[in-house]
Write a structure and sequence with these properties.
The chain has 20 helices and 9 strands. It has helices at 2-6, 12-23, 30-41, 49-58, 60-67, 77-80, 102-108, 113-120, 157-169, 189-194, 216-225, 230-239, 251-255, 263-273, 285-292, 294-306, 324-343, 377-393, 406-420, 422-432, and strands at 137-143, 149-155, 201-206, 309-314, 317-322, 354-357, 363-364, 367-368, 374-375. Strand 4 (309-314) and strand 5 form a beta hairpin. Helix 2 crosses helix 3 (30-41).
């Protein structure tokens, strides 16, 4: 019965119909039960089967009805029947592979069930293991000038192979919201900012700890929503999330930080990353983050439409823009947007919220969006000066930050400028090509 209720969308009419099918007839009390179920689960993520069973067994009307009946609810159907794909209505058209058992998942990933269990690490043994060679990730702490801390968790080769298979075979086949521009094919920072050019006022907001705030349970719920049985969804969620060892935040790593981090910020970062979360550095994390933010994007886009504005998101950067109508309510929209974000499991970094009118530089995700998308003048001039000095004095004299591959670093910065402004990018590329690079023996 629980399996029957889980199939499809949690609307009262559909639930009542499926209850009637499961019971063999329609009772008067099933409409009330269906309404209570929809009220509890309609706005949340797709529940686990044990959660549905707990709801049914705690419902007084349901228990009273079956106490008077000779028919007993089939709560054990999870064990009596084989697992099957049960996508919600919106996910029924997704072109994702049907994987119904743990063995099928291991075969799809070209690994063994034992290795699959080891890499999924559903009990977070890796977070308690002090031996670096037994961990699935490489860790690097970065301190921001503000004193906050960012942890980069780069998967090792085998884990990265598994995650890339999940990304290509499942995640990239699930459509993202039109407002999401980060890490989506055919979209970029330029398309993110282009929607806000020439606008009277632009509202910029930032999400705090975007990747770490998405927990393993939420990722597993995403895969259940796609239709995967609980065991398969749990393993997929385990492969895409991790819990960081406490030793990563030890004094040895802390003393090597480029900027002096606030000890409280370091402790808060450890508290956040100690819980299984999306790792910043895994190939699957951006796609999963976009999918987990889908409902937030829907609500924020609707909020923008009501205010006569446009909404886009690039990873953790949110942007709203509009004309006179939006200008009159921009402050209220910022408050309502922060409330929506909080309800959807994220948090706004209020210190980075900005309302930018046409008289100032409207800055979004590293580019300017006043009249057209363009690079920041100071950044362009600084990069041009660095490239010119590399030509005159050699690249070693300009590598003040000690980049291991300074050539690739500069090439990436030039490519970014060329993406935003092709004319300026062409000027920088001509200078870059004049640099005499010394090949290491």
């Amino acid at each position: 019965m629980a399996r029957t209720i889980l199939a499809g969308e949690p609307s009262p009419g559909a639930i009542a119909q499926r209850l009637g099918q499961a019971l063999g007839t329609q009772f008067r009390w099933t409409d009330g039960l269906a309404k209570r179920y929809a009220e509890k689960f309609a706005r949340g993520t797709r529940p686990r089967m044990k959660t549905v069973v707990a709801f049914l067994t705690s419902d007084a009307t349901f228990n009273a009805a079956f106490a008077r009946s000779k028919v007993k609810p089939a709560f054990v159907d999870r064990f009596a029947s084989p697992p099957a794909m049960l996508p919600v209505r919106a996910a029924a058209q997704w072109a994702i592979p049907a994987i119904e058992t743990e063995g099928a998942l291991a075969a799809w990933l070209h690994t063994s069930p034992e290795e699959l269990e080891w890499f999924a690490d559903l009990r977070s043994f890796g977070a308690r293991n002090c031996q670096e060679k037994l961990r699935h990730y490489h860790y690097r702490l970065l301190a921001k000038p503000s004193g906050s801390v960012r942890l980069i968790e780069a998967p090792k080769q085998r884990m990265k192979q598994l995650q890339r298979a999940i990304l290509a075979g499942i995640l990239e086949r699930i459509p993202t919201h039109d407002a999401a521009h980060g890490f989506v094919k055919g979209r970029s920072i330029k398309t993110f900012a282009a929607a806000h050019t020439g606008k009277r006022v632009v509202l910029r907001m930032d999400l705090r700890d975007f990747f770490p705030s998405i927990r393993r349970a939420r990722v597993q719920a995403l895969f259940r929503t796609a239709g995967y049985p609980e065991r398969v969804a749990d393993l997929l969620g385990g492969l895409c999330t991790t819990a960081s060892p406490r030793s990563v935040f030890s004094a040895k790593h802390y003393s090597s930080l480029e900027f002096r981090a606030d000890p409280l910020a370091l402790f808060q970062a450890w508290q956040t990353c100690a819980i299984p979360h999306l790792p910043q550095g895994a190939p699957t994390s951006p796609a999963i983050a976009n999918l987990c933010a889908h409902r937030a994007d829907c609500r924020l886009a609707g909020l923008a439409r009501e205010a006569g504005a446009v909404y886009t998101r690039y990873a953790d950067d949110l942007a709203f823009s509009g004309g006179e109508k939006f200008e009159r309510c921009a402050e209220r929209i910022a408050v309502h947007a922060a409330a929506i974000v909080l309800e959807e499991g994220f948090e706004v970094n209020h210190r980075k919220t900005r309302i930018m009118r046409r008289g100032v530089r409207q800055y979004l995700a590293g580019v300017v969006a006043n009249d057209r998308v363009n690079v920041v003048r100071v950044d362009f001039d600084g990069l041009k000066a660095t490239l010119t000095n590399c030509v005159r004095h050699g690249p070693a004299s300009q590598n003040r930050d000690g980049h291991t591959n300074f050539r690739a670093h500069l090439a990436g910065r030039v490519s970014f400028v060329a993406m935003v402004n092709p004319q300026k990018g062409a000027k920088l590329r001509r200078i870059f090509e004049q640099i005499a690079w010394v090949e290491e023996p």
